[in-house]
Design brief:
This protein is an alpha+beta fold. The protein starts with 7 loop residues before the first strand and ends with a helix. A hairpin with a 5-residue loop joins β2 and β3 (28-32). The protein contains 1 helix and 4 strands.
Amino acid sequence: MSGSTGAYIIEIDDEAVGIVVPDEDRAFRFFAAIKPYIGLEERRFATPRAAQKAARELVRGRRVAADR
């Protein structure tokens, strides 16, 4: 979803986990909406899809660690 600012909502399993906002270098900066994704806070991504992939991998890593 994009607004007039070019921001995109990043969703994982139908939950909004953060947004990405384009910066001056044409990258997208991530801002976490919920605590589990704070590890990605202000990280830059080439595309919104790359940010979503990183968010998915972050959660997947936590689930794997929790299963051990």
